[in-house]
Each structure stands twice: as C-alpha cells, then as structure tokens.
Amino acid sequence: MRRLVLLSQLGARTDSPVRFLRWHAEVEAHVATLPLEVTVLRPNLFTQAVLGALHDGVLGAPIGDARVSVVDVRDIAAVAAVVLTEEGHAGATYTLTGPAAVTHAEMAAAAGARFVDLGEDAFRDALGGVLPPWQLDGLVEDYAHYRRGEAEAVDPAVRTLLGQAP
C-alpha cells in the first residue's frame, strides 16, 4: 500500500484570488489522479511563521485586527503521523487549525512584543530583500485573505485526530 500525506493550505480552491491557494488546489487535483492513498492536510497559518516574523520586539503585517486560527506546526506533524500510519484516512481532507482564532496583536503581546499594522507597501518594503517578488506577491495575497476574515474559522480535526486539544 502506498500512502501520501499532502500538505496543502486552508482555503485551497482553484478559483481563489490567492495564488498559493490556487496552486495548492491544483496539486490536490493532480495527486487525486495518482494510484495512491492520499490524505490532504489543509493547515491554517503556522504559529511559528508568525512568531518567526518578530523583529526587534515588533510584529508587522498588513492584517489589522482580523483573527486567524493559527496552528502549531507540531500539531500538523502529529496529525500527519496519525494519518500516515493509521487506516481510514485515504481520500480525506482535514482542515487543521489551532483552538481559537487570535489577532496578530494578541500573538505579539503573548510573545512580549508589539504589533504594527503595516500597509501593503510597507510590508513589501520590509520583505523586499528577503523574498523573491513572486513569493512576496503571494504573501501579500495571503494576508489580504486573512484580513478579509477568511481564515478565522476553528476546525475540530486536530482534537479529533489526536485526541487532545491543539
């Protein structure tokens, strides 16, 4: 038996205005045609990615006070291990979120930092020398998706699959 656990993204769909969500949906469609037992994991924004963006005690992003149900990468890894090693997950798609939707200001405060709501141009300027243009454009689209409130839903999949709170 050949199994594949595909890491996708919450909200993946072919008609999305967010390129990364379109690309993930295209990959999902492709692997569905392969002779494999495929399980798709669609995590939300990684907690560690947000906290990794802290710089000099500041977290800046173009998101305002939108809430995002960020998920810990350790929960994603634990779910991947479960669906890879246990029966009954072939063909399933699981949305992976944390236990609550939080703002970037709340995450910054929890890390002893402060949040600055950056405009798109300031966000681009801050990351311009760090990311290639295509990736930066996609990240700006991702943050517009978050800002619209499209990533605040909390899903029970992590709790259900792991038998514990995310």
Can you walk me through this structure?
- It is built from seven helices and five strands; from the N terminus they run βαβαβαβαβααα.
- With about 170 residues, the protein is α/β, with parallel strands linked by helices.
- Strands 1-2-4 form a three-stranded parallel beta sheet, covered by helices on one side. A two-stranded parallel sheet has the order 3-5.
- The longest helix is centred in the C-terminal third of the chain and has 15 residues.
- It is globular, with a radius of gyration of 17 Å.
- The protein starts with a strand and ends with a helix.
- The model has no long low-confidence stretch (mean pLDDT about 95).
Q: Walk across the major sheet and give the strand order.
A: 1-2-4
**Could you give me the name of the CATH homologous superfamily?**
NAD(P)-binding Rossmann-like Domain
Most strands sheet: 3 strands, parallel
Number of helices: 7
InterPro entries: Ergot_Alk_Oxidoreductase, NAD(P)-bd_dom_sf
Which key features would you list for this structure?
three-stranded parallel β-sheet, alpha/beta, 166 residues, 41% helix, Rossmann fold
Short synopsis of the structure:
This protein is an alpha/beta fold. It is built from 7 helices and 5 strands. It has a single domain, classed as Rossmann fold.
Topology (elements, then pairings):
Elements: E1 3-7, H1 19-31, E2 37-43, H2 47-52, E3 58-61, H3 73-85, E4 93-96, H4 104-110, E5 114-117, H5 120-127, H6 133-147, H7 157-162
Parallel strand pairs: 1-2, 2-4, 3-5
